[in-house]
Amino acid sequence: MTEILRRCSRSSAQKNLPRTYPVAGIRKETTHVHTFTFNVSLGAKPGQFVMVWLPGVDEVPMSVANDDGKKLQITFFAVGDTTKKLATLKKGDLVGLRGPFGTHYEWKPKQHLALVAGGYGAAPMFFAASEAAKDGCTLTAIVGARAKEHLLYLDAFKRLPRTTLSVATDDGSQGHKGYNVELLAELLKSKKKPDQVFACGPERMLVKVSDLCFQHAVPCQLSLERYMKCGYGLCGNCVVDPLGIRLCTDGPVVKNDLARSITEFGKYHRDHLGKKHSL
Amino acid sequence: MNLSQTVRGVTFFNPTVLASGIWGITASSWRRVAANGAGGITTKSLWLAEHKGHPNPTIISTEHWTLNAVGVPDAGIEKAREEIGDFNKKKLVPLIANIIANTVDNYGKTAVEIVKLKPDFLEVNISCPNVEDEFGKPFACSVRDASAVTKAVKAVSGKIPVFIKLSPNVDDIGSIASACAEAGADGFTVINTVGPGMAIDLRSRRPILANKVGGMSGPAIKPIAVRCIADVYRSTNGKLPIIGTGGVMTGEDAIEFLLAGASLIGIGTAIAYRGAEVFRLVCEEMTAWCETEGVKKISELTGGMHRERASR
Ligand SMILES: Cc1cc2nc3c(=O)[nH]c(=O)nc-3n(C[C@H](O)[C@H](O)[C@H](O)COP(=O)(O)OP(=O)(O)OC[C@H]3O[C@@H](n4cnc5c(N)ncnc54)[C@H](O)[C@@H]3O)c2cc1C
Ligand SMILES: Cc1cc2nc3c(=O)[nH]c(=O)nc-3n(C[C@H](O)[C@H](O)[C@H](O)COP(=O)(O)O)c2cc1C
Ligand code: FES
Questions:
Q1: Domains and their CATH numbers in chain B
Q2: A246/B201 touch (CB, cutoff 8 Å), yes or no
């Protein structure tokens, strides 16, 4: 029994209990996007998420945008009640964090990685890129947004070594006019075919990345989002059909073969009641 | 070693059963849990109409306990039809449909609809501590209410055995159980979550759960569950089967539940502590214990404590 208790405390420790931290830094990225810095490390790896608690409002999942062993960052879009209220916080205001949860992106030293980022996906993609750069990886970052003013993390990507940055905007206000996946398609056809593709962004984008990588037989890892409550495998709210796996523990980062065996991928997701909504 | 148990005519190839409300919203989840070795599965509590839960944070844990105030969210009967219908197409293990309602009448109405989906058992959740703000004290806290719900469900359940899920948060769980037994209950699930409890974030000085309080589960509640199982077994003279639930982490915990009077073992929160494979692990540990102790069939263990003169 003591052995089991030891195992319990290692696996659950205080990681499943939120603790509040003052917001130590705020960076306004675009009109709707902010990056918060907290003076704490949760030991998160790129692709993992934390539950972000705004006391009195709600607690929502956010990908870790950076965790360097001293501070942790999140980058978020103000889309609804919680995130809009988060966006009004000032330095010193308290936000609860617990985690990190889930799987993370995996690479081997010196690999060539293509990172496809849509929307706030640029933040976790940058975290992955900066860690992979330390392992000597060569990087092609493909960042997309609706328009120039919504592009995220471009300067950060530019500062990384061995990194090529390509940009796509729907309206052509910067870079390629069209979708970032079109740039990925070109890269996969070229001589500079990457060893792996990482992607984080809207599900429609992920479906295209998945298809392209499948066609070109390039391994890829995708971050899938579902409605999260506990974050550690109890509530079952983040389960996907037909596998019944929980994306808070077996995801959010999944390899392409797993993503392609999730029949609801690109089709529907479930809300907080377990009710299906088509994409 | 044969771990199978036949309860009210239904055979479970091992006595572990997924507890209600954990990893239990969809047919694909139930199959996944069965694939991880569970002998049976219980659905999350099903409502007739859509019911909203509480905002997050809804579930928090330390190494000793878990608090939850999910608030029993559910999409209603249509979803139950779809998911149970799907599960029945390729049924791996027995299915226990757990139902909940806000009035005695609505328990009956919900049971009518769920019975049509042919679950192996009906489990009636009259003991959720997380909807008190909405509906007042759980039905499981009064002899009269518990008995009325049991009658309402039994009136429409036909051949499907009805298990009443009891609350540990009462003065005398034995008297509630006897009242339900008199009203026709076919068995009991003992226990639902304990408390409720509260946890406070120190810096913000606020309760962490959005609902402020939540039901407690996990390893810390096991001794309470053991005592409740023993009380219910004694008060019903060991005649009605019990699904013992609350804090089971290991095979030895499960054996202890059997000795207290359980026939089946509900496992929920342990998934957070030992992973999805907890069902298989508990079964292996039960087998190992039985082999060491020379126990041939686990059915002989049920109620074992009550047969020892000294503990009567
Ligand atoms: C693994 C994961 C990582 C994420 N990373 C980021 C990130 O780095 N930056 C970012 O801006 N957003 C991220 N999100 C999305 C973020 O959780 C939602 O934008 C946020 O929950 C919206 O909450 P709201 O109250 O502001 O909006 P609401 O109006 O309540 O909801 C807007 C949308 O967010 C979804 N949502 C609400 N609550 C949850 C929940 N508990 N779990 C999942 N989805 C929810 C709803 O389904 C709805 O579609 C991530 C989601 C997941 C699952
Ligand atoms: C997250 C969570 C959700 C639950 N939801 C329900 C529910 O919907 N209906 C119900 O009857 N019990 C529910 N319960 C109670 C469990 O079924 C079980 O009785 C209790 O957790 C004790 O067992 P455990 O310690 O093995 O988890 C829930 C428990 C947890 C932790
Ligand atoms: S969020 Fe609760 S099981 Fe995944």
A1: 5-54+74-198+217-306 (3.20.20.70)
A2: no
* Architecture of domain A112-278 in this structure: 3-Layer(aba) Sandwich (3.40)
What is the rounded CA–CA span in Å between residue B81 and residue A202?
31
DSSP chain B: -B--EEETTEEESSSEEEPTTSS-SSHHHHHHHHHTT-SEEEPPPBPSS-B--PPSP-EEE-SS-EEE-----B--HHHHHHHHHHHHHT--S-EEEEE--SSHHHHHHHHHHHHTT--SEEEEE---GGGHHHH-S-GGG-HHHHHHHHHHHHTT-TTS-EEEEE-SSSS-HHHHHHHHHHTT--EEEE---EEEEE-EETTTTEESSTTSEEEEESGGGHHHHHHHHHHHHHHTTT-S-EEEESS--SHHHHHHHHHHT-SEEEE-THHHHH-TTHHHHHHHHHHHHHHHHT--BGGGGTTHHHHSGGG-
Predicted confidence band at A4 (pLDDT cuts at 50, 70, 90)? Answer: low
Tens digits of per-residue pLDDT, B39-98?
A: 999 999 999 999 999 999 999 999 999 999 999 999 999 999 999 999 999 999 999 999
Distances (CA, A) of B72 to A274, B101, B202, B237: 11, 10, 28, 33
Tell me yes or no: is domain A17-101 CATH 2.40.30.10: yes
Q: Which helix (H) or strand (E) holds A143?
A: strand A138-145
Query: Using the 8-state DSSP alphabet, how is residue A85 labeled?
Result: H
Please give the ipTM for the structure prediction: 0.93
Chain A closest CA to B299's CA: distance in Å?
A: 24
Alpha carbon distance B293, B300 (integer Å): 13
Residue nearest to atom 29 of ligand 2 (CA): B21
Per-domain boundaries in chain A: 17-101, 112-278
In this structure, are residues A245 and A202 in contact, taking their beta carbons and an 8 Å threshold? no
- Residues of B in Cβ contact (< 8 Å) with A1: 250, 252
pTM, full prediction: 0.95
Minimum-distance CB partner of A239 among B26, B56, B203:
B26
DSSP bridge partners of B213: B198
In Å, what is the CA distance from A4 to each residue of A189, B23, B54, B270?
A: 51, 22, 32, 11
